[in-house]
Amino acid sequence: MLLEREAELAQVAEALRAAAAGDSSLVLLTGPLGTGRTALLHQLPMLAEGEKIRVLRANAAPMEQDFDLGVVRQLFDSLLTGVPEDLRGQRIEAGVDLCRTVFSDDAPPLDENGAVTIPEEALYGLRSVLATAGAERPLLILVDDLQWVDTPSLRWLAFLVKRLHGLRAVLVCSLRDGYRRPGDPLLGEIVEAARRVLRPAPLSLGATKEVILEQFGVPGDEEFARACHESSAGNPLFLKSVLADLAMRGHRPTAEHAETARSLRPAQLRERLASSLRAQPRPPRDLAAAIAVLGDQAEPDLLGRLAGLDPIGFLAALRDLHQLGLVAAEQEPRFLHRVVQDAVESSMTVAERERLHDAAAALMYHNGRPAELVAAQLLAVTSSDHPWAVEVLRAAADTALRRGAPRTAARYLRRALLDGSLTGEGRARLLIDLATAERGFDPAACERHISQAIPLLTTARLRAAAALRISPTIVGLGPPSVIDLLHQVAEDLGPAASLEGTARDVALRLEARLRHAGHEDPAELAAAVERLSVLGAEPPLLTSAERELTAVLLNAAVLTARWPAAEVSRLANRILEREPATSDQVHTPLPLVVIGLVAADSVRGISSWLAMEQQTRRQGGTVVDALVNVQQAMVLSARGRVAQAREYAERAVRLAEVHWQEAGIVSTLALTRVALDLQDSALIERILDGPGRRRSSSLALTAALQFVKAAQDAEQGRWSSALETLLACGRQLEASGWRNPVLFSWRPWAADLHRRVGDPHAAGALAEEELLRATEWGAPVALGRALRVKARLIDGDQGMRLLRESVDVLRASANELELARTLLLLGKRLRPGCGEAAAVLREAAALASACGVPRLVERIRAADGSGAAAAPPEATLTRTERTVTSLVGRGLTNQEVAAELGVSSRAIEKHLTSSYRKLGVSGRRELIELLPRMHS
């Protein structure tokens, strides 16, 4: 395809018309690599179609530069083969004989220096041949890639361009920008003789779309076309290389592949660019290498010094690179495309790259550049002799950690450890810093590096403080090696009562870790609760260490339900009041406080604290991010906001996929709670097929998986199997001392299954036991649920009284989903069609919709044959939300809906997110499926 080259074709056509009238000329096609000079040159013979114009052509090539007179041979071969025998005449025959003599391999003409040349009489003789041919019909002489023409042919062309008058010819030569032939003035003579210099412009966006259509056979999406146009900068070679690579990968020209188009680095294009660069003189090659090494820090001063160029040489080399089409602008040292960076790097040896990166690090260090910029250069060097390298890498790691990039920090510190001069405590400190960075995404590596550091430390306090860098587990068992290490350093340090200051804080933290390590042992839990009682009603909370210990002891009281929920809530909130919200808290036992507040049904005040905590972190795909999302999911689940909780839980699971261990356990726990509330069989099956089923050493996770297995069996009508699983789970939890009726609500479910299998006596016994536990614990959600379970088993006024009592209790609970469930049961018990029943079911439906539980909404609809409960799902939407969902239901995209309503796409996204939450759907597909039922 030849697009947007009409102006160039018109100028050559005009030159041909002038040549026919006797005014010959030279036209030069120039431009950087890939702008389509050759394609345009190949199109020019079409101008001669239907006209009495003879075309002579020659193509130069780098590999044929040693083939003397090769280009001249091609031109005259094309002339002679194009002249019929009966039209040659005497002068043409003489020209043929002359050409045979000049091009004879047996006796090539040589000058006084032994170089192949053409005698003066032969030069004029060959011109005479062209004049004779031009007398019959005008000539169009095409020479492609003038920069590769062999020297003897170049000498003849330089002779010819000065004597074009009278030939009735147009000579069109293509010449790539930026090419230089050292010490050869002939090319300059030809360029200076050009009457017209044509530079094909970059392709427009419209032309880019046409090339996409030609490549794929279908139009490309607007976003895809723009990505291709911007990444190629309108260069036809870059564009077609990217499109060919995309087609080879099986991609289509759609918006979803726009980023792929931006990031592709076609190998063939890279090799072509590298070949072009290798043919350049040393200065532009050195400058290109310097740009590749310095990247975004490619400032002129640093570039020039790294490339070994003075200011004048720097500007000349940059101009050459721009003419080659490798940099974006003549005054801007930035590569045109990512593939140029690859081409430059491929043209360097490993030793050259290391030398340049090391030199760049020294330059940037001595010029006061930030530590991370210097460290980035040191990362590319296997070893360095700079005495400041380790401190720079440590400073860079500290900066990376503060901006929330632990993986980057770890890379800096691993590079620093390669320095052989580090020994003793210096090496230990570096190992501890590395472990601190790794604990957010690689807990196993963190433990390993702490274990390596501890023997190098000289005091018990330092060893204990180092051990505390290992993040504690929240619900899983710590590895035995870590527990042994904690015991060892705690024994060396001594009890907190005998210590003061920092040493006492370290001892308290160690005690917290070791006590929590026994949280699945009933004896250890009892001892922890006793320790909490010894601290009194107002445990000391002045220091972080005291708060950590109290959080662990309080968790023991929560698991065993040995303290009432009100006391747990009071103490947990005291801890949070004194604890600033930071992302580092996930590396301590403090997140256990969130579990306590969830169990105490006291989560209304924690949302702002969690929001502050979330603002302190950076999204980096680490364990930190996963655990923060888990906390959000737990609180939302405790409020009954299941649809929102699912978003956080799913995100946590995705973040934890790479690092199973702790993040994987707690993420799966959060997701199981969501799956059970939603009664989502597909989600339940996914959880059971996940890695947790195969790698579960945590009692909490084992119990959660037994819950979802029972849910799966119950869904499929295997009630006895589900009951057996639940009872086994309950026995295991009781044996471990885990008795909290909110965290482990297996009895209400087991009671219902007993009822289903026809054992009301066993169901009643479990219901009574659950009510007793819930009353002792005192959390509204547990008590209200227990009352509902008992009411389900009792008919008549007593059952109705228990249901009303459950409603009253649950109105004080944060969990709106449990209230909706009780209201549903109460609405069913009330007289059908009465006003109270309709109002109760309407409230239940509104709550269930707000919680995002569509299955419960459907059950509430079915409970009232009058349809009184059918309105809430849609009624909970605002007028704007109803308009937006209606347009989405017609198949419009967010952008189209925004255009229809005259608002931004961001506003549409917000309305849709709110609608998803209210209707209890996860996305556009489920919304579209729900709309017909919603409006029916």
From TrEMBL:
**Classification via InterPro entries:** AAA_16, P-loop_NTPase, Sig_transdc_resp-reg_C-effctor, Tscrpt_reg_LuxR_C, WH-like_DNA-bd_sf
Taking every annotated instance into account, which residue ranges of this chain make up the domain HTH luxR-type? 870-935
Keyword Ligase applies: no
Does the record bear S-adenosyl-L-methionine in its keywords? no
One family from Pfam that matches here is AAA_16
Q: Which SUPFAM superfamilies match?
A: C-terminal effector domain of the bipartite response regulators, P-loop containing nucleoside triphosphate hydrolases
**Signal peptide range in chain numbering:** none
**What are the protein's UniProt keywords?**
ATP-binding, Nucleotide-binding
Q: Which domain of life is it from?
A: Bacteria
What is the name of the protein in this document? LuxR C-terminal-related transcriptional regulator
